[in-house]
Design brief:
mainly alpha; 4 helices
């Protein structure tokens, strides 16, 4: 059981860190692209797909972490952070609400910190302390 908790939190932290790098790198990549190539101003399809890949991976990590954590407050915190990330990514595509681009860093950083906290402090010493 302890291996499952650490694996889900490690996956969640790594996925969130990669998502953060993706979010930070995107403007710089497209600035470089537009200065080199003036023919193509649209985002490549594979780059747009990475948002959904990170969202799916982070969903699995949050799901596994919340089902195996020994700490009760971490569950809603992880789900709230993931829900905010989901809303921001979907809103970015659908533009329901006008949000700053930097808003995505809040749930991403909170997912990183919550997974790292859960990995370090919410360990089960026995199989009976984790909620299934």
């Amino acid at each position: 059981m302890i291996f499952t908790i650490q694996k889900a939190d490690r996956l969640g932290a790594v996925s969130s860190i990669l998502c953060l790098i993706h979010c930070i790198a995107t403007p710089f990549i497209f600035m470089a692209q537009t200065s080199l190539l003036t023919c193509c101003s649209s985002t490549p399809g594979w780059w747009k797909l990475t948002d959904y890949i990170f969202l799916a991976i982070s969903f699995l990590a949050v799901y596994c972490s919340t089902h195996t954590t020994a700490n009760t407050w971490i569950k809603p915190a992880l789900w709230i952070s993931w829900s905010l990330l989901f809303f921001i990514i979907i809103n970015e595509k659908a533009t329901w609400v006008s949000l700053q681009e930097n808003v995505i860093f809040i749930p991403t950083l909170s997912l990183i910190l919550l997974h790292l906290y859960n990995r370090k402090y919410c360990k089960c010493d026995t199989d009976t302390c984790c909620i299934h």
